[in-house]
Amino acid sequence: MRALIVDDSRAMRKIIGGILRREGYEILEAQNGEEALKILKDPETGRVDLATIDWNMPVMNGLELVVNIRAEKELRNITLMMVTTESEHSQIVRALAAGAHEYLIKPFTPEAVNEKLLLLGLGT
């Protein structure tokens, strides 16, 4: 299983990456949505099962990334999980309506990530 972690915080990418590695994932990283789209569209690196996406990033934010991924036929099978500090109900609804499968609010525990993976059928 492969996961792409999209977050402008290197520390957050490392934290999420550590949790997902323990679940058996190979990890790819991107600092913003634009970089993530390049990775996903690259036939060499692009096949991923899960993308964790922060909302607030420069260049292309997480919501824009979700919309762009869902617009690409060949990327629609990727499971998308927003992992963000945005906790207002309206933001959660917007992300899910745009095509995110799950929503995890920062700060979170490793157990919370694992619970979401199980809900998505991607955990052990």
From TrEMBL:
Gene3D superfamilies: 3.40.50.2300. InterPro entries: Bact_response_regulator (IPR050595), CheY-like_superfamily (IPR011006), Sig_transdc_resp-reg_receiver (IPR001789). Pfam families: Response_reg (PF00072). GO terms for biological process: phosphorelay signal transduction system. The modification 4-aspartylphosphate is found at residue 54. Keywords: Phosphoprotein. PROSITE patterns: RESPONSE_REGULATORY. Residues 2-121 form the Response regulatory domain. This is Response regulator. It comes from Mobiluncus porci.
